[in-house]
Amino acid sequence: NAGVTQTPKFQVLKTGQSMTLQCAQDMNHNSMYWYRQDPGMGLRLIYYSASEGTTDKGEVPNGYNVSRLNKREFSLRLESAAPSQTSVYFCASSEPGSYGYTFGSGTRLTVV
Amino acid sequence: QKEVEQNSGPLSVPEGAIASLNCTYSDRGSQSFFWYRQYSGKSPELIMFIYSNGDKEDGRFTAQLNKASQYVSLLIRDSQPSDSATYLCAVNPPGTASKLTFGTGTRLQVTL
Predict the structure, then answer these.
(1) Which of A58, A74, A87, B25 can pair with A36 through a Cys bridge, CB separation 3.0 to 4.6 Å?
(2) For residues A104 and A76, is the Cβ–Cβ distance under 8 A?
(3) Which chain A residues are within 8 Å of B97, Cβ to Cβ?
(4) With contacts defined as CB-CB under 8 Å, which chain A residues touch B99?
(5) pLDDT, tens digit only, all 112 positions of chain A
(6) Spatial separation of the C-alpha atoms in residues B42 and A103, rounded to whole Å
C-alpha cells in the first residue's frame, strides 16, 4: 500500500528552468494538496484540488501552476524557477471532512 | 496574528516524563484539530485528531481541546527518545473545506 507517492525526491534547478513535481495517491481520496515547508514558516498551502477537474489557490500560489490529471494524480509545475522557491514540497491527500491528511515523502528542491 | 501559533522550542524533557505541547488558534469557528509528528528530513505523520472539547486519549498520547480559550494541547506520557521530533498543530478553519492551516511546530527533545 503505497499511499502518496512523490517524484522526484531531490532536484537542483538553475534560475529560470522549469520542472514538474509529480504526485499520485492510491487511497481513492478526492482532495489533494501541495504545500511547501520552509524553516520558521511552517507548512504553507500552494494549491488545492477538492476533486478531479477542480483546483484552487492557497496561501502562496505565485510562480506555480497545478494540474489535477485524474483522481489519482496532482502535479505542481514551476514555469521559471527562482531561488525563493528553494524549499521542501509536500503533496498530501484526504477525504473531505476526514481525519487529516496523508503526506507524501516530499521533494527537496534547490534553485541556484 | 498568526492563525495557528506554537512555541518553536526546543522543549527538553527527560525520558519517562510527561511532555506538554501547546497550540493556540485565532479563528473561533474552527472545528477540527490535528497533531502531526515530523522527524527530521521526513514527512509529517498524523498522530491525533480532536473535534470536541475535552480530552482524547490514544495510548501514551492525549489531546486536549478548549474551544472557549482557543487552545489545543498534546500530552505525551512516559516520553521516549523516539518521541524526539517536531510536533505540528493543524487547524481546519471554517469555510475552508478540508484545508488545514499549520503552526510552525514545536521541537521536542527527550533526553536520557
Answers:
(1) A87
(2) no
(3) 31, 48, 50, 96
(4) 33, 45, 48, 58
(5) 679 999 999 999 999 999 999 999 999 999 999 999 998 888 999 999 998 889 999 999 999 999 998 999 999 999 999 999 999 999 999 986 666 899 999 999 999 9
(6) 10
